Structure formats: C-alpha cells, structure tokens
Description:
Blueprint: E1 11-15, H1 21-28, E2 34-38, H2 42-54, E3 58-60
Parallel strand pairs: 1-2, 2-3
Amino acid sequence: ALSFSKYNIDNVFDIGANIGDYAITCRELGFEGEIFSFEPHPTTFNNLEPKGTKYDIKLYNIGFSEEMEQP
Length: 71
C-alpha cells in the first residue's frame, strides 16, 4: 500500500484530520498499521467520529500548536 511497507511504516499520524479523507485513503489502499487522527474543532470531530470505528482509526479531539489555546 503506497510506500508504507517499503519504508517499514507502522503508524500514521493524521494531524488536522478534518473529515478523515487521508486516513480513509490509507485504509482503502491497504494500510494495516495504526492510524492516529487528530482534529481539534468539535463540530468537525463529531463528523469524523463515526469513521473511527468503521476504518479502525484512533481519534483524538485535540490540536497541535506552539500556543496553549482552546478552540
């Protein structure tokens, strides 16, 4: 799947996952490792949640930043 096996990639971190397109594409292309998706916006995260179970994606309702802020 993609070049994941070529480079021995076991985990994917989808930062700013939005609605999960990247993580879902990885699964659809055969990636079997762990996928961790991070989406800070509450409404967008709620739309992402059903896909977590369906595509075996670990979801986190947090963001990454240099600043300590709440959305």
